[in-house]
Amino acid sequence: xxxxxxxxxxxxxxxxxxxxxxxxxxxxxxxxxxxxxxxxxxxxxxxxxxxxxxxxxxxxxxxxxxxxxxxxxxxxxxxxxxxxxxxxxxxxxxxxxxxxxxxxxxxxxxxxxxxxxxxxxxxxxxxxxxxxxxxxxxxxxxxxxxxxxxxxxxxxxxxxxxxxxxxxxxxxxxxxxxxxxxxxxxxxxxxxxxxxxxxxxxxxxxxxxxxxxxxxxxxxxxxxxxxxxxxxxxxxxxxxxxxxxxxxxxxxxxxxxxxxxxxxxxxxxxxxxxxxxxxxxxxxxxxxxxxxxxxxxxxxxxxxxxxxxxxxxxxxxxxxxxxxxxxxxxxxxxxxxxxxxxxxxxxxxxxxxx
Length: 354
Prior knowledge:
42% of the residues lie in helices and 16% in strands. It has 354 residues and is an alpha/beta fold. Strands 1, 2, 3, 4, 5, 6, 7, 8 and 9 form a nine-stranded mixed beta sheet that branches.
């Protein structure tokens, strides 16, 4: 399927009302699928069972070879047959060749026309009030560009784990407070805490976020862009059952101590290259995102930090001096996990530079 370009299209005039009878913004759902026949029906039914219904569902299928799209059509057709009074637009896209997660979501959101866009994975289940609660926040806060929430972690059978998504991601109270107080960018410069499956954003964000920058996952880039040009926030209660089944494109699970040790001691070259690519693409876009010199300086510092890490030598002893110097600048703390990342950079095996 040929790439789509962002174009001006009329916003849907369909409005929905909640039990409180207030007018809400129109909502589109961007649902991306790939060989999702096992779980997509449950996800679609949970979207169609919302207390505030979306006006539109865009399903972008990334070259599935199973019954995913047939299930989508069947579920929506059956729902329409019993809800003839409800207007629901279904747009189906199918990629002959897979685009990958990020590009597939970019394609999906560009085909939406709602004032608000809710991202959806194929294998989760939404709590019935997910849209209602999030739309209410956007109604109440005209400056809000992006909102995400906590989620219940569930296994492949829908059994809830003992902790939620934010717990598993080790999102601290300090981070949550910073986000609530309008300093989300300082958090996101250190690490991503936004999960696309829990995210809704205002359509106007696409004006600056598209095309999604190289090296970034769609949810990370949307969150970073929103925090750069406006306001983003988080709801600290679960609105989604986020399914972990071993085949997730992107999942979330708290690592054990042994798992963290393996991560620290594992090869680091690919990770450092990925972080450098992200910093470079952000630096290339920052002038179009913000006129703030302090923000541009922050991005330049972030790039310098990742350049240093990418240039670390194959021999561990040769890394000591540059890592110590970098620790003294404070950049390990501002753009990562502080001493933990410094230790990681010191001990991780790296490839020889060409």
